[in-house]
Design goal:
Helix content: 40-55%
Structural class: alpha/beta
Oligomer: single chain
Shape: globular
Strand content: 15-25%
Number of domains: 1
CATH class: Alpha Beta
Distance between the termini: 18 Å
Strand order of the largest sheet: 3-2-4-1-5-6
Radius of gyration: 17 Å
CATH topology: Rossmann fold
């Protein structure tokens, strides 16, 4: 069983959406996925309910709630899923510690600007200072097409390098179909049934699959080591 957590110290980076997008792509490929919603906002649980009501939730996805570290540990021990994704708040508390310690990797989504990156640096520093094992990896999210040429983006990249933050090379673009997915689509493949959105969905899915490949390669390398 592979356990992947998603955490950030500031809202608005698309943490829960990224967790769900990865879950849906894995499930679409036939992988049995458990999402543990350990975030007080319950975004993943609410998404799952909307999708069930719409009849779009993939059979390979199940969602459970965890309000305490003990509940989180119990769900992990009981799970028979191939992959468990844990959506947790980035607040530096016992729940975050439990999620990080239990996970093979903890993904930290962040927008590429100095304000967001400074908060992200604090999360990495806290984990490194307080945990013997802190397998955190940064992924830049909600990146618009022109962002990579802006001073704000370059300043954010400078902070990443200055603080030696381990980051995935793939970053997640800002896409309208991700917003539609967050409603009740169940998967990006469902949205592609609309011919006018097929090309958008193809690019969006490729973006998520590339990140999944990066994660898989990281885990493979660490296990071999």
């Amino acid at each position: 069983m592979t356990i992947i957590s998603f955490a950030n110290s500031k809202g608005g980076a698309g943490k829960s959406t990224l967790c769900l997008l990865i879950a849906s792509e894995l499930a679409h490929a036939g992988t049995n996925v458990l999402i543990i919603d350990a975030d007080e906002q319950q975004s993943c649980s609410q998404w799952a309910k909307r999708c069930r009501d719409a009849g779009t939730l993939l059979d390979a996805i199940s969602v459970s709630r965890a309000s305490t570290p003990e509940e989180l540990k119990a769900l992990l021990q009981e799970s028979t899923a191939e992959i468990v994704l844990v959506d947790v708040q980035g607040s530096m508390n016992k729940m975050l510690i439990a999620a990080i310690v239990a996970s093979d990797v903890t993904i930290v989504p962040s927008k590429a600007n100095v304000m967001e990156m400074n908060e992200t640096v604090k999360l990495f520093e806290w984990a490194q200072a307080n945990l013997k094992r802190a397998p955190l990896r940064l992924v830049l999210t909600r990146v618009d097409g022109i962002d990579v040429n802006t001073i704000a983006f370059k300043d954010a990249v400078h902070l990443i390098r200055k603080n030696n933050l381990p980051a995935f090379s793939t970053f997640i673009r800002s896409r309208k179909v991700y917003e539609q997915f967050s409603n009740n689509a169940g998967s990006l493949a469902t949205i592609a049934k609309d011919p006018s959105k097929a090309e958008q969905v193809e690019k969006a899915r490729a973006n998520i699959v590339n990140l999944i490949s990066d994660i898989s390669e990281l885990l493979k390398t660490e296990r071999e080591a």
